[in-house]
Amino acid sequence: xxxxxxxxxxxxxxxxxxxxxxxxxxxxxxxxxxxxxxxxxxxxxxxxxxxxxxxxxxxxxxxxxxxxxxxxxxxxxxxxxxxxxxxxxxxxxxxxxxxxxxxxxxxxxxxxxxxxxx
Length: 118
Known about the structure:
Layout: E1 2-7, E2 10-13, E3 18-26, E4 32-39, E5 46-52, E6 57-59, E7 67-72, E8 77-82, E9 91-99, E10 105-108, E11 112-117
Parallel strand pairs: 2-11
Antiparallel strand pairs: 1-3, 3-8, 4-5, 4-9, 5-6, 7-8, 9-10, 9-11
């Protein structure tokens, strides 16, 4: 079992920046991905960005060029640097940890609120 603790959410004006952090603890697999999803009330949770232990990254189209994901494998921590934030980025952001082998198993953080005011 993996526990995830998120931090860094808050309220920012449009055009501003925020940095989210998520630390994983527990049964950490050597092959995993860590990343961020977000959800607006009434809508499906959507992937923002993810990064594997080998450094491979994936970004949603809306995140490309504005958001940067990074991770510190020694600390089992993933970061999401968000720049040029827009009101439509307002959501609850969830940290995700996925063990990949022998089959994918996902763990989720409790979420951190990001509010972007216009």
